[in-house]
TrEMBL record:
It catalyses: a phosphate monoester + H2O = an alcohol + phosphate. InterPro entries: Calcineurin-like_PHP, Metallo-depent_PP-like, MPP_PAP, PAPs-like, PAPs_C, PAPs_N, Purple_acid_Pase-like_N. This is Purple acid phosphatase. Residues 188-401 form the Calcineurin-like phosphoesterase domain. Belongs to the metallophosphoesterase superfamily. Purple acid phosphatase family. Gene3D superfamilies: 3.60.21.10, Purple acid phosphatase-like, N-terminal. It holds the Pfam family Metallophos. Residues 64-176 form the Purple acid phosphatase N-terminal domain. Residues 1-19 form the signal peptide. Keywords: Glycoprotein, Hydrolase, Signal, Zinc. Its EC number is 3.1.3.2.
Length: 563
C-alpha cells in the first residue's frame, strides 16, 4: 500500500510540474508576444509630496539618515553611505563644512557587540543656478565608509555616525555574499529602473521588498529630480511642456533626499548597485553634470580599475557584473571602451561563469519611445560583448517591459545575450504603450535624439524589415513585451541556468502571479568565449576557457528539472 501511495504521489508530482513547466531559452527563439496596456489601469500617477511620511526628514541634528549599502569589487568589502545635517535650498546657500562630523562605522558579528571600527570620508556638493529667481541647493554632509576584511556569507551588525557627538544610527544588519565560485550565487537579485517617487513607485518597491532580494540592480533614472521646477516645487510628466520658458532644466534637489529616505528601509540592509541614466545628468550653468549621482552613491570604480564612477564592474558570487555608462564617451577610442576590453579579458568564466551587463538605454527596443536612440552605442560596443559571450543585458529608459530572444546585430543568434528592458519602475513620465510597429507610431529618423552621443538611426539592411526604419509587426527578436509597471527578480540556479521572473505591479496581492518567467540557459560548450575572439580583442588566456562542473558538462536539457 505504501509503495502504491508513493508511486501515485510521484505521478501527481510529475504531472503537476510539467503542467506548469517554465520555458527555457533553449525552447526559443519564441514567437513574439505582446500584452497591450490594460485600459482599466492608470498610465501614471502623481509625485509624492515632500511632506509624505516616507520622504520627510525624521532625524534631528547630525544623526545619520539616507543610509545605503553598496558592494565593493568582492565579497570581503562593503560600502556604507549616509547623510548628516540638513540640506539648504534658496537664493543664497552656505555649504556645510564636511570636517565637522566624523564618518564612523562600528560593526561586528553579534548584535549589540561592535568590536570593529572603520573611518571614511565626508563630502558636500552644490547645485547652482545663477539665474534671477532660481534657487540654489547645498547638500547635507555625505559620508562614505568602506569596511574591509569581511568574511563571506556572514551576517554583520553595524551602526554608523559620529560617536563623539553621540549621533549614531540604530543597529542595522547586512549579509556578505559568497566568494566567487561557479556554484555560489546571491540568493535573489532584484532588477528595477526608472523609479522616481510616485504612488506607482511605492507599489513597485513594496512589491520588490515582498520578494525579499539580497541585492538590487538599479539601471538608472533614480529620483526624477529634474522633473521639478525649483521655484515651484511642482512635478511634471513633460518638463519642456510644463516649463517652456525655464532658462535651464532645473532639478529640485530635495527629491534626492526624499528618495534616499524612501529607499533607506531597503538599501540600508540590502546593497544597491546603481548606474546612471539621463535624469542623473542634471547640468548646471557652469557645465558640471552628474554631481548628485557621483557624490551620493558609492560604487567600486577604483577597485575594478575604472577611472570614473559612471562605469565599473564587480563580482557577486559566480556572477561578474559590468555596469556601462551610456552618457559618457563609449566610442572604441574612449577610456570606457579601453577599460571594458581590459575588464573582459580578466574575467575567469571558470570562477564567475555568468557575465551580466547593465546600462540605462536599451539597444534593442520595439517601443516608439527611444526607438533606435542609442544605435551609436550598439554599433561601438555590441561586438565585444558578443565575442566575450555576455549572457544577460539589463536596461531601463523605456517605461515598459520587454524581453528579447537571443540576438546579435538584429539577427537571431543562439549565442547572443538575452536583452531585457525593465524601465517600468513607476516614474512620473507614465508607462509607454505605443510600439514602433503599430500603424502610424513609427518615429521619424529625426525623433529620439539622445542626450549624449551621436545619431546613428538606420534602415534595416536584411530580414523582414529590409529597407525600412520600423518593422510592420513585432520584430522577431522581441520575444515578449508588456506595457505595465513592475520589477524583475533574477535567481541563479547553477552555472548554466538562471530563473528570470518579471512581476507586474498589479499582481502584488496575487500569490504566485507574475507577468513573464523563463529559465535563461547558458551553453558554454557551443558558445565558448575563445572560439570567435579575434586576436585584436583577445590575448589567449587559459582563464577564458569555460570550466563547467562535470555533472553539467554534457547537459543539453530543455528543462532544469532534467539536469
Amino acid at each position: 500500500m505504501k509503495k502504491i501511495c508513493t508511486t501515485l504521489w510521484l505521478q501527481f508530482f510529475v504531472v503537476t510540474i510539467f503542467a506548469k513547466r517554465i520555458p527555457t531559452t533553449l525552447d526559443g527563439p519564441f514567437e513574439p508576444v505582446t500584452h497591450r496596456f490594460d485600459p482599466l489601469l492608470h498610465k501614471g500617477s502623481d509625485d509624492l509630496p515632500m511632506d509624505h511620511p516616507r520622504l520627510k526628514r525624521n532625524v534631528t541634528s547630525f544623526f545619520p539618515e539616507q543610509i545605503a549599502l553598496a558592494l565593493s569589487a568582492n565579497s570581503s568589502s562593503m560600502w556604507i553611505s549616509w547623510i548628516t545635517g540638513e540640506a539648504q535650498i534658496g537664493l543664497n546657500v552656505t555649504p556645510h563644512d564636511p570636517e565637522t562630523v566624523a564618518s564612523e562605522v562600528w560593526y561586528g558579528k553579534e548584535s549589540g557587540k561592535y568590536i570593529m571600527k572603520q573611518n571614511g570620508v565626508s563630502v558636500v556638493y552644490s547645485q547652482l543656478y545663477p539665474f534671477e529667481g532660481l534657487w540654489n541647493y547645498s547638500s547635507g554632509i555625505i559620508h562614505h565608509v568602506k569596511i574591509d576584511g569581511l568574511e563571506p556569507e556572514t551576517k554583520y551588525y553595524y551602526k554608523c555616525g559620529d560617536s563623539s557627538l553621540a549621533a549614531m544610527s540604530d543597529e542595522l544588519e547586512f549579509e556578505t555574499f559568497p566568494l566567487p565560485a561557479p556554484n555560489k550565487y546571491p540568493r535573489r537579485i532584484a532588477v528595477v529602473g526608472d523609479l522616481g517617487l510616485t504612488s506607482n513607485t511605492t507599489t513597485t518597491i513594496d512589491h520588490l521588498i515582498m520578494n525579499d532580494p539580497s541585492m538590487i540592480l538599479m539601471v538608472g533614472d533614480l529620483t526624477y529630480a529634474n522633473q521639478y521646477l525649483t521655484t515651484g516645487g511642482k512635478g511634471a510628466s513633460c518638463y519642456s511642456c510644463q516649463f517652456p520658458d525655464a532658462p535651464i532644466r532645473e532639478t529640485f534637489q530635495p527629491r534626492w533626499d526624499g528618495w534616499g529616505r524612501f529607499m533607506e528601509l531597503l538599501i540600508s540592509r540590502v546593497p544597491m548597485m546603481v548606474i546612471e541614466g539621463n535624469h542623473e545628468i542634471e547640468p548646471q550653468a557652469a557645465g558640471l553634470t552628474f554631481q548628485s549621482y557621483l557624490t551620493r552613491y558609492s560604487v567600486p570604480s577604483k577597485e575594478s580599475g575604472s577611472t570614473s564612477n559612471l562605469y565599473y564592474s564587480f563580482n557577486a558570487g559566480g556572477i561578474h557584473f559590468i555596469m556601462l555608462g551610456a552618457y559618457v564617451d563609449y566610442n572604441q577610442t574612449s577610456a570606457q571602451y579601453s577599460w571594458l576590453q581590459h575588464d573582459l579579458k580578466k574575467v575567469d568564466r571558470g570562477v564567475t561563469p555568468w557575465l551580466v551587463a547593465a546600462w540605462h538605454s536599451p539597444w534593442y527596443n520595439s517601443y516608439s519611445s527611444h526607438y533606435q536612440e542609442f544605435e551609436c552605442m550598439r554599433q561601438e560596443m555590441e561586438e565585444i560583448l558578443y565575442i566575450y559571450r555576455v549572457d544577460i543585458v539589463f536596461s531601463g529608459h523605456v517605461h515598459a517591459y520587454e524581453r528579447m530572444n537571443r540576438v546579435y546585430n538584429y539577427t537571431l543568434d543562439p549565442c547572443g545575450p538575452v536583452y531585457i528592458t525593465v524601465g517600468d519602475g513607476g516614474n512620473i513620465e507614465k508607462v509607454d504603450a505605443d510600439h514602433a510597429d503599430d500603424p502610424g507610431k513609427c518615429p521619424s529618423p529625426g525623433d529620439n535624439i539622445p542626450e549624449f552621443g551621436g545619431v546613428c538611426h538606420m534602415n534595416f539592411s536584411s530580414g523582414p524589415a529590409k529597407g525600412k526604419f520600423c518593422w510592420d509587426r513585432q520584430p522577431e527578436w522581441s520575444a515578449y513585451r508588456e506595457s505595465s509597471f513592475g520589477h524583475g527578480i533574477l535567481e541563479m540556479v547553477n552555472s548554466t541556468h538562471a530563473l528570470w521572473t518579471w512581476h507586474r505591479n498589479q499582481d502584488i496581492y496575487h500569490e504566485n502571479s507574475h507577468g513573464d518567467q523563463i529559465y535563461i540557459v547558458r551553453q558554454p560548450q557551443s558558445c565558448s568565449v575563445d572560439s570567435k575572439v579575434p586576436s585584436h580583442l583577445l590575448q589567449r588566456d587559459s582563464r577564458l576557457s569555460p570550466s563547467i562542473p562535470l555533472a553539467l558538462e554534457h547537459c543539453s536539457c530543455t528543462s532544469i528539472l532534467s539536469c
